[in-house]
Each structure stands twice: as structure tokens, then as C-alpha cells.
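A note on notation is needed here, since sequence and fold are reported together in a single record. The reader may check this reading against the record printed directly beneath this paragraph.
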Amino acid sequence: MWITLGLLALGFIIGLFLKGHGGKLISAIVMATVCILLFVMGIRVGLNEEIIGAIKSTGVISVILFVFGTGVCIVLTWLFTKYVIDRGAARNSLTSDSKEDAKADEVEDTDRGNASSGGASGFKDSAIILGCFLLGLVLALTRILPDAFYALDFESYADWVLYAMLLSVGVSIGMGESVWALVKKLPRRVLWLPLVALAGTWIGSVAAFMIIRALGYDLSLQQSATINTAMGYYSLSSILTTKAWGATVGSICLLTNLMRELFTIVAAKPMGRIFGRFASTASGGATVTDTSLPIILKAEGNGILPAVLYYGIVINIAVPFLLSLFIM
């Protein structure tokens, strides 16, 4: 997380010196690094026997957990945005503090509108990103390339591509015009977003548990809630759940949270159109400080950055403690 913030800060400083020059090039670089990262992710998933085994043996459970945990999280965040953040800003517009909040919201909405003006372009980007992931997955599953290719250290390559992507995102932010207005005063109502997202995830976990048990699968409510509490943090959560309840639950946790990350990256644009500007942030969970960050900014505009980073930092700090609490 701190590497992410450092790279974004460095990129932001560089972007301040490049303001007005090379904006399209930086956007192209961000998109290229995202595509490469998803291609590598597809390869890593395809080569991971644990994930492939989980899809075959417990894929149904993982899908149910993902759909309800992430789905209710998105819906509750949408309701909170519509009836608390937006309506609250309008209702309190006569006070000086809320005027500043409303102004910040207005800047954010304008910036988001600029990001969304591409229309079909956003859906085209999602299709390209998904295609890159599927290409890597197919290449890994079929193993049609020479063995030397599959012996490469894809994990290290993915880290370096991620660093390049975050640096490029920082440059793009530094070249923007409206970020400082939101950095100066983050709307107070946004501070509740992490709790709203977690509450939605837990409510969805209860619904998922009831359906899973109705279908005859053996998964406890505690396990269901723990798996979704990871909020996309699949590396740590899969290790902890495997240690607590065995390889089967660990595999379900890994697959469920991997689906959450991939869904956020692919569907950020339509999520924003249907469920509001914070939907992809809520869906991304712990991943909004790395892999899903550039996609969220591309879908919603750089003006949403302060809220996304705040949300991501809180979730990344809270998740390890919550997982330990749920597993006790």
C-alpha cells in the first residue's frame, strides 16, 4: 500500500511538470500497462492448480459468495450515495461547511462527466481488458507455447508492470486540473463509505450462506462472512482461511476474492453508470490501492481519487484485523 502511495506521489510530481503535454500518451501507457497486467494475471490464474481445482470443485459456492457479497455491497453503496451523500449535500447547502462539500461534489461530478463522455469507448476498454485476461488464461490452460515461456517468473513481471502502471496513473493525476479542489476538502459523508461497503458485504454474506446451505453445501455462516470480509484481499485471506479451516475453504476464499477483483476491473464503467460513482470503489475493496485504481479513475475521473485512496487505506488496514477477529 505504501509503495502505491509513493509511486502515485512521484508520478504526481512528474505530472505537474508535464501539465499540458503528452496527456494522450500517458493515457495510452496506463491502458497498455493494465492490459499487460491482466494478460499476466490470466496466465498466473491458468497456471495455478489450486485456483483451477477450486473452480472445478467449489466454483458454485465461490460464485454465490461473490454475487451476493459484492452485489449487496454495491447496492447499499448506491443507496448511500443517492440518499445520504447527494441528498445531504443538497439539503444542507445553506451552511458554509456544506457549501464547500457541495462544491467538492460538483467538481467531482464534473470530472466524472468528462471521464464518462467517451460513452461506448469505456465498454470497448472493458472488452479489451477482459480479452487480455482470457488470452492469458487460454495460453496457460492449453500450454501451446514452449515450456520456457511458462517457466518465466510472471509474479515478478506483474509487480514491475503494476509499478509502471501506478507511476503512470500518478503522472496522469498530476496533469489534471480538478484534483486539488477535492484533496483540499474531502466531503465528510464519504468518510462512511468503508463501513457502508463492509455492511453490504456482510449482509450479502448472510444471504449467500442461506442459499449455499439450501443447496446442500457445507459452509458455515462464520466462514461465509470471513471469506467476503477479505474484500478482494485474496492472498492474505486464502492463507488464513486455509490455516483455520483447511484447503477447501481456502480455495473458495481465493476464488471468491479473485472474482471480485476481476469484476471490478472489467465492469467499472457500467457499474458507475448504473449504481453511481462510488460503486466500483466499493466493489474493488482492498484492490483500489493497486490493480483496480487506474480503471476506477478512467471510469469516474481523477476527481474521485481522494475518496478512493481514503477508502482503500481504511479497507487495507481493517481487513487483516477483521479476518483475525472472524477466524477466532
DSSP finds 15 helices and no strands in the chain. The longest helix spans residues 49-91.
